[in-house]
Write a structure and sequence with these properties.
117 residues, 2 helices
Length: 117
């Protein structure tokens, strides 16, 4: 008699655990379905925006091809310009810089009534 009762309790516990598992999985699948629906709406909006751009892509690709074709020539020209042009740092000491306007006078003393000469 005890064995039959324990078997029934095990089966009820198994069914309860499976029901809880299916409930959790169902909730997660519902959330995923909602996210997929939002993603599908975004994809349709992107498609609509891309349809406006599509006619100009041929021109953009053509221009990009011209630029890509000119890069080796530009690179060669840049190498020719840079050849022999190396930076040499100054080795002599420079004196401290002097102000261009000469000695600077403060105007703060005029504000308190003291005028310096």
């Amino acid at each position: 008699m005890n064995l039959v009762v324990f078997t029934v309790i095990d089966i009820v516990a198994l069914v309860a655990v499976l029901a809880i598992y299916l409930y959790v999985v169902g909730k997660q699948l519902t959330k995923v379905a909602g996210n997929l629906e939002d993603a599908a709406d975004l994809v349709w909006k992107i498609k609509q925006n891309a349809e406006v751009i599509a006619p100009g892509l041929e021109r953009i690709n053509r221009t990009g091809g011209v630029v890509a074709g000119a890069l080796p020539l530009l690179y060669g020209m840049a190498e020719g310009i840079v050849t022999g042009a190396t930076y040499e740092a100054d080795t002599e000491e420079r004196p401290p810089a002097k102000p261009a306007m000469g000695t600077r006078r403060s105007r703060q003393l005029h504000g308190v009534g003291f005028i310096s000469k």
